[in-house]
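[PROTEIN RECORD]
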Amino acid sequence: MANTLVFVDLPSTDVEASTAFYRELFGWTINPRPQGVFHQVVPGEGLHLGLFSETEQHPDPAPLPAQPRSGLHTRVYILVDGPPGDYLNKAVLLGATALWEQTYWEEFNGRHASFLDPWGNQIVVWRANS
């Protein structure tokens, strides 16, 4: 299949800590490839994610110095099996910053909440209404 989204990588200043954060929050399997530099996130049936070191930027052959992030961020949506607000609260306890509390999104008939992980990546947790 051509032109298909394959992977999303999230930058981190501490890939090991990012691994612990996402493993604890979502229960994901995370494979170091290589340890501390790039970790493959296997979230179940969805697309895989990656966590990469801002200093090494694997597999980039010519990494640039990490730049401070500000303004809007790319949003990564995670389908969750419980109330998004519960995941938001757990993420905050693990060190995330809440962006918005659980709210209803009428156009898509579901609920969502959002946070910045401790490394500045915006995550939206989503659950459709039954």
